[in-house]
């Protein structure tokens, strides 16, 4: 049985899994798997690790779940989603980190994306820019329920999904400390339009899944204020842990309404 090119996986390897959690960082794959194994009491096993794409097969509520890293940004995320869909995955949940735009959102809070502003380029290769990047309502409900069960402070709403980390988020701590004119003032605009946060993959996840007739969602832990400040280890740990806890609870409720949380 041939493997898909980038992920180095095939249908036999994934053992009937139909849900995939999608962190960006390959190291976070192991973090999620360990948390899930600790809650369920079942072992997890690594299936493949090629380039930025690392996959571990975990188990919860009697069902197999894939955890696959996508790397940073839309192009690599689109590869992961496309190839996982080819293998039969039907539900995709991004589990990542983000910078808060709204001032009422604190470090460690989680944002559950209901829709994304498509500031990337990769999603336009799957659907025209007029096509909305929207999360599936069942995934949004499961993530909200998961956050509540996990005791995680959360906010549901619109995310700005940028194709770049520095100019796209109007950061001036880049090498040349300059943001081109078309992007100047955009953070203030998203603030006034009630956009909650910046990250780099949700528009691809939501556009691809919606346009393919699949189920997609996104939860991110807040690790800094958008456009300003260094991301500390404490903030990164807090945001990551909260997003992971809520996402795992969401998966458990998707598999079984009673869940384990």
Tags for this entry?
Rossmann fold; 261 residues; 7 helices; 10 strands; globular; alpha/beta
| Proportion of residues in β-strands | 25-35%
The coarse overall form would be globular
Specify the CATH homologous superfamily: Nucleoside phosphorylase domain
Q: Got a strand count?
A: 10
Structural class: alpha/beta
Give the H and E element order.
Answer: HEHEEEHEEEHEHEHEH
For the report, how would you describe the main beta sheet?
5 strands, mixed, barrel
**Mean of residue pLDDT?**
95
- At the fold tier of CATH, the topology name is Rossmann fold
How much helicity do the residues have?
A: 25-40%
CATH class placement: Alpha Beta
Name the strands of the widest sheet in spatial order: 5-9-8-6-10
CATH architecture: 3-Layer(aba) Sandwich
Question: Number of helical runs?
Answer: 7
What is the alpha-carbon Rg in Å? 17 Å
Can you walk me through this structure?
- It is a single chain.
- With 261 residues, the protein is α/β, with parallel strands linked by helices.
- It has a single domain (11-255), classed as Rossmann fold (3-Layer(aba) Sandwich).
- 33% of the residues lie in helices and 26% in strands.
- It has 7 helices and 10 strands.
- It has a 5-stranded mixed β-barrel with strand order 5-9-8-6-10.
- Strand 8 (154-162), helix 5 (186-192) and strand 9 form a beta-alpha-beta unit.
- Helix 2 (26-40) packs across helix 7 (233-255) and helix 4 (137-150) crosses helix 7.
- The chain starts with 10 loop residues before the first helix and ends in a 6-residue tail after the last helix.
- The relative contact order is 0.20.
- The model has no long low-confidence stretch (mean pLDDT 95).
């Amino acid at each position: 049985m041939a493997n898909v090119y980038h992920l180095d996986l095939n249908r036999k390897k994934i053992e009937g899994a139909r849900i995939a959690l999608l962190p960006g960082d390959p190291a976070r794959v192991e973090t999620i798997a360990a948390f899930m194994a600790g809650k369920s009491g079942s072992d997890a096993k690594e299936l493949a690790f090629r380039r930025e794409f690392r996959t571990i097969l975990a188990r919860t509520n009697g069902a197999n779940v894939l955890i696959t890293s996508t790397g940073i940004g839309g192009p690599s995320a689109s590869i992961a989603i496309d190839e996982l869909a080819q293998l039969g995955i039907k539900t995709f949940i991004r589990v990542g980190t983000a910078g808060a735009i709204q001032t009422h959102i604190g470090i460690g809070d989680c944002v559950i994306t209901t829709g994304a502003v498509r500031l990337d380029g990769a999603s336009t290769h799957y659907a025209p820019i007029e096509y909305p990047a929207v999360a599936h309502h069942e995934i949004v409900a499961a993530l909200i329920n998961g956050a509540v069960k996990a005791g995680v402070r959360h906010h549901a709403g619109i995310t700005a999904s940028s194709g770049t980390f520095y100019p796209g988020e109007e950061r001036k701590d880049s090498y040349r400390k300059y943001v081109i004119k078309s992007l100047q003032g955009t953070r203030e605009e998203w603030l006034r339009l009630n956009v909650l946060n910046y990250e780099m993959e949700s528009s691809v996840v939501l556009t691809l899944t919606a346009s393919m007739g699949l189920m997609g969602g996104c939860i991110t832990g807040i690790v800094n204020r958008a456009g300003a400040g260094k991301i500390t280890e404490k903030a990164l740990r807090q945001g990551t842990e909260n997003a992971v806890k809520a996402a795992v609870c969401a998966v458990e409720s998707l598999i079984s309404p009673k869940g384990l949380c």
